[in-house]
């Protein structure tokens, strides 16, 4: 086969996976704002012969509420097209008979309605933002130290994200805090877990080399996808920082200005 | 020389360094409570020919207020005998011309009165406890990401300590959170930093092999002292946990029930 690099690889693609925050929109007060050109880019992908899925580590709201917010911003997105960590975590908890102590944002609680939370034997943390109080983190710590075999699930491991008023700490730093305090290693549910990316590929019925991931997070979006055998493209929006282009361990297959440019380049290869 | 192990080594000792919280007293509401036998043990050491210093990673109050609290509990302790991280940090900031953004407990602020804090070019974190809000941690994160060469000082790296109502997260987990978020390594001021232990030895005019450290924190008290060439004894009070006695990297020279037992054993070797 000839050139499989970017953008040549786009000719043989069968599916595209999009990160959401920082690619489609910037989060912030009042639901955030769409990134210029992204609404149209999603429409173009939907009008093409490519399969399209959305893959987010968003854990501040249930998928229903989250998708409703994106629809309100003008995006043509369905709940069934969106993969997020909370439903994946619920499946793991069920499988292993675990009862979580939850340290998550109030808006995410409905995702765990069906899960037995009495007498917890593990801890699940998500992006709790303002609810990452000292008291709440200490409570999670005490649950873990009280367990003979402490188990910590982290809904993602992002370092920070960008809201309209600046950078905000994500769940990752708090995961590291509990790992250190309790001498354990968290199990990450969500990006960049290979299990999580694989579940999206399974849903599309595609092999990794047939799909491409576009995100603003070099390590979790781009690196995670590449680790699974997909191509990974970084956009210069959202939490992108120029230093990402000289990162020590992850190199994107390409870096593009924004989603609109990525989608136009992909579709041009398929004419 | 014959037996230099415990307790034989006590015969040739010239000085003893005591950790405070978890050795002398358990902290908690209303100033905490003295650990039975510890007040008398301090008196016995003071009546002996051994030099005595106190070495704490306490960063919730100025040394003056902290020592006053211990005196009220019945301990014969002077401010000049106590070594704590904040004054050590102030010295380092001066030396390097750094202006800190402080994320510390309100009670510690007076220690930094003399330090220029305008237009910060580093961050200092201490055990801020309830003041470790999401907002405060995020502010420290934003200062660090805004610096070309981010510098983070952590007043200790303890994982947790014990108060009368249970275990509480110490500064260490929050240090790890910022290290991960900002891709940096903090400079630890306080135990187990060799510089910190050395400053106590210097004050006594002793060589490491002439001094012994007694603490409840296996890694920071015992391991830190051993790393400097001192003997390190762990007490089974404070944050001691049975698993400490089978730790993978640190083995105490001895583990004793409490300070009273340690002091009686030491003084018996010197009759």
TrEMBL record, chains A, B:
Its EC number is 3.6.1.1. One of its GO terms (cellular component) is cytosol. GO terms for molecular function: inorganic diphosphate phosphatase activity; metal ion binding; phosphatase activity. InterPro entries: HAD-like_sf, HAD-SF_hydro_IA, HAD-SF_hydro_IIA, HAD_sf, LHPP/HDHD2. The keyword Cytoplasm applies. Keywords: Cytoplasm, Hydrolase, Magnesium, Metal-binding, Nucleus. NCBIfam families: HAD-SF-IA-v1, HAD-SF-IIA-hyp3. PANTHER family: 4-NITROPHENYLPHOSPHATASE-RELATED, PHOSPHOLYSINE PHOSPHOHISTIDINE INORGANIC PYROPHOSPHATE PHOSPHATASE. This is Phospholysine phosphohistidine inorganic pyrophosphate phosphatase. It comes from Cyclopterus lumpus. The lineage of its organism: Eukaryota, Metazoa, Chordata, Craniata, Vertebrata. The gene is lhpp.
